[in-house]
Amino acid sequence: MGGLDRLRDFSLLRWLREERQSRKLILLIVFIALLLDNMLLTVVVPIIPSYLYTADNQEATAPNYTVSPQTPSGTFQTIVSLYDNSTRVTSGAPPRDKKLLNENVKVGLLFASKATVQLITNPFIGPLTNRIGYQIPMFAGFCIMFLSTLMFAFSKSYSLLFLARSLQGVGSSCSSVAGMGMLASVYTDDEERGNAIGIALGGMAMGVLVGPPFGSVMYEFVGKTAPFLILAVLALLDGALQLFILQPSKVEPESQKGTSLLTLMKDPYILIAAGSICFANMAIAMLEPALPIWMMETMCSRKWQLGVAFVPASVSYLIGTNIFGVLAHKMGRWLCSLIGMLLVGISILCVPFAKDIYGLIVPNFGVGFAIGMVDSSMMPIMGYLVDLRHVSVYGSVYAIADVAFCMGFALGPSAGGAIARSIGFPWLMTIIGVVDILFAPLCFFLRSPPGKEEKMAILMDCNCPVKTRAYNTQDTQNYQMDDGMETESEE
């Protein structure tokens, strides 16, 4: 049996070596990286507000509440029962807890720190991938994420949690920019690229889907440390896969000099696509810190419910990215994004009307589905715009896409927390809903973006292999993961 096991292991290793150049394996690596990154991103959503509130208020609340070993099964629970399984004898509505409301800003800033750091890091990672290739930044992203996960597991103070969240932003920048750029390089046909990016975004959706309920259930029944240790183990497996498949030890710069980041940022069509990504994701970014606190205040929700409330949005995002990764190319990506922006706005406006966790199902489902429509159409169109109007090197343009994504998740929690505390959660939802609806018509300009004549001339004179709508991967595409690879001739 031992010899048979060794033979099977050898066969698996040999298969992996032979398939190292396969686009499917590259897609799998990007999928897993985005999955784990977004699990870490969202697993903290139900944990951090509860954990910080407990840490800040356990002494102040102890004299006023009767502690019991188990939470009663009655229909009414007080704020404190969310954190330490204690109950307060009362028959009226829960009081408006000012300390709980103040957590909006504190939690919002912590959540926003990741996106803010990622926002700052992205302009450096994009050009860096053009110089050294995608493999080394991708592996660096894993290493940083692993360290951040361990910090989350063992940190007990707000400052260390803030540092862990900020460090995650650096790792996410490396993984997302390098991952999307890698996919755009190996999937050069516009339709194939859209399908591949849709699958990769499915990894992001899976992370968003699994993260909140996984975090809330593990936190309530096991503790804060356990979910992060599990993520750390999964991250190690991902790192081993990257190390073996990508072999991130060689510098492999792009064969062409890419368009500068500043030039791409001046392109109005790229700005519209980036704006769609930013404002659509800002909606869910504002929900993440504010919704659990609003649920504690108005619904007396238990800890596990704070994460489960995001499940409809996560499931619908997964559905949306997989459906419209293929369908958006056929119906027109501009139209898909326009409808998605309108649906985000309408759904987010309906969130404050929910009276309990069941009332959140439909609006949260709509929010996630609509964001999936926007992301699965705008991410591929970023690569298409570069092919059409600039040099077909993708690190910088996906740095811009990630900057847009991060702006939504930086401004959303930080501004959202302050707005929720000042004028209330319903007005916060109204503001971002109206913004999405007003931005939606701008997507019409992406219906038929013009190509630049000098770009077309370069493509014809140089016989450039990039043909975004009619590219045949069997003819000219070369993508080398190491010096020993052969030209890819199938997929």
Keywords for this entry:
single chain; 491 residues; mainly alpha; two-stranded antiparallel sheet; 18 helices; 73% helix; 1% strand; globular; disordered C terminus
Q: Explain this structure to me?
A:
The chain is mostly helical. It has helices spanning 2-18, 23-43, 47-61, 81-84, 98-132, 135-154, 158-186, 190-221, 225-245, 261-265, 268-298, 303-308, 311-331, 333-350, 361-389, 395-423, 425-439, 453-462, and strands at residues 66-67, 86-87. It has a two-stranded antiparallel sheet. α6 packs antiparallel against α7 (158-186), α11 packs parallel to α14 and α11 (268-298) runs antiparallel to α17 (425-439). The model is unreliable at 61-96 and 462-491 (pLDDT under 50).
